[in-house]
Design a protein that fits this description.
eight-stranded mixed sheet; about 260 residues; alpha/beta; globular; single chain; 11 helices; Rossmann fold; two-stranded parallel sheet; about 40% helix
């Protein structure tokens, strides 16, 4: 009887591993889909941009404009929602005299295509190259939020930028995922790595990190691991009692953001 129970547990374990591999995108990403004719309602001047990657892939973005831009912020958002919500982050930066380009990842909003770490990074490079046609590289700030920090760090490690800003980053996505499913070989199953710490060593521009001590999604100790690779001119801002989704409600957060963007 015990032998049959062991076989059952083994089969169940293997089944769960198979499900984790083939359905991991559903555990990681929570996109909101938008109709192609969906209308956005945001403050200020902006325009929709559609980037045709191939026959099956289109990346949708919103380009916000300030009257006298000091530069532009290329913003990569988190693992849920769509530009219908994330577009709101642009308003504060526009008020600081920055243009903003923010896109939806593949499968989010009006963007289409197959999700993969390589494709996310490829799309980010395409957006950066688009901005280079309009802005000097030293006027481009790369901003990553949560999962978007993985894309932002990769892009900054391969290109010139004025600065890299990371809000609630992880040191390594595989380590973060493994901590959630400790009894399963997540690192061997995971299709996404986003090794922020290793790639940050290749970033030449100043890096500015923001993380809350009460972050329940990406623990604060992940950000601490990144502090060791920060170079001269970089900053690390701890928001006491801040969690994963409320750093923008703290005065200290905006005081530091304004100081960084000058």
């Amino acid at each position: 009887m015990l032998l049959y129970f062991f076989y059952f547990l083994t089969a169940l374990y293997v089944l769960i591993c198979i499900l984790l591999y083939f359905f991991q995108e559903r555990l990681i990403f929570f996109p909101q889909k938008l109709a192609v004719d969906h209308t956005f309602h945001f403050n200020g001047e902006f325009e929709e941009k559609f980037f045709q990657v191939d026959d099956e892939t289109t990346i949708h973005a919103l380009h916000f404009f300030s009257e006298n831009p000091k530069g532009v912020i290329l913003y990569f958002h988190g693992n849920a929602g769509s530009l219908d919500d994330w577009g709101e982050v642009a308003d504060d930066f526009v008020k600081m005299d920055y243009d903003v380009l923010i896109s939806d990842f593949r499968g989010f909003g009006k963007s289409t295509g197959e999700m993969s770490e390589a494709s996310f990074n490829q799309d980010a490079q395409m957006l950066y190259d688009f901005l280079l046609e309009k802005y000097d590289a030293q006027k481009i700030s790369i901003f990553g939020r949560s999962l978007g920090t993985g894309v932002a760090v990769d892009l900054a490690s391969k290109n010139k930028a004025e600065r890299l800003i990371l809000e609630t980053p992880f040191a390594n996505f595989a380590d973060l995922a493994q901590s959630r499913f400790k009894i399963f070989p997540v690192k061997a199953l995971l299709k996404f790595d986003f090794s922020n710490k290793d790639k940050m060593e290749k970033v030449d521009c100043p890096i500015h990190i923001f993380h809350g001590t009460n972050d329940e999604v990406i623990p604060y100790n992940h950000a601490i691991k990144l502090e060791s690779v920060l170079k001269q001119g970089s900053t690390f801002t701890t928001i006491k009692f801040g969690n994963h989704n409320n750093l923008f409600t703290f005065e200290e957060y905006w005081t530091k953001i304004k100081a960084i963007l000058k």
